[in-house]
Design a protein that fits this description.
The protein is an all-alpha fold. The protein is built from four helices and no strands. Helix 3 packs antiparallel against helix 4. The two termini are 76 Å apart.
Length: 148
Amino acid sequence: MVAQRLKPPAEPEAVTENQVSGSLKLVKLLTDSWQVIAAIVGICTVTLGAIAYFATRDQLTKTQCLLTYNILLNTLPSQVDQLTIKIKFDELDLAHLPKDSVARANIMNEIEEYKSQKKTLSDQYRDSLTKFQSGVCEIEKSKPENKQ
């Protein structure tokens, strides 16, 4: 084998004074303003995190809709039951009153009013249940239309 002679390392190119001065200025600027840069990065991070964390308007609308129907579907049956009980108590009172009395006529009117309210609440329950089962609270994303 032929011994190869190692070449001496190449001399680095001479750095001009302008290059040194520009680099020093950049380093000095970064050193002086690192806190401001860190604050800006932190604010951007917190803002993006808040946007990702908190619910969108669509999610809030859907939640409000679900809560409304949940309340309706849970309270309307008990209201109908209360009216049914009022009707039964009034019918029991009717048994003790004479047939031609004014009190009997008033109770009969109350019973008719209760029956009307009961029908209204039952219809409202049926309508709410039908709407809820049909997905009234589902939010449809608007799809972009294909323009030709």
